[in-house]
Amino acid sequence: MPRPERHVFVCATHRPPGHPRGSCGTRGCQEVLDEFMFQFQQRQCFDKVAVTPCGCVGPCGQGPNVLVYPEGVFYGNVTKDDVAAIFDEHLLGGTPVERLRVGPDIW
Prior knowledge:
- By secondary structure, the protein is α+β, with helices and mostly antiparallel strands.
- Helices cover 22% and strands 18% of the residues.
- It has one domain: Glutaredoxin, CATH 3.40.30.
- The protein has helices at 29-43, 83-91; strands at 6-11, 49-54, 66-69, 73-75.
- The chain has a four-stranded mixed beta sheet, covered by helices on one side.
């Protein structure tokens, strides 16, 4: 298996309702993760991109959170509808999606 050019980590943390930190799980991370996996398979980009669900990458209030390496680009408040843009523009096109990046005070 070739090493991918980019690795996407999608927060899949679920905390109980009312937890003071909240969680991406209560903000729709599962449908975001499902869309990443769908796009990944549809585009057949197995040699270019890896998608991995992960634990908390913080900050929970900005979730669902997505982190892309090797650039270390942090996306917050990602929705299912944002995933195609992340694939087209960043993962395959090389240009981060600025409208989804969290501010420098956060990451």
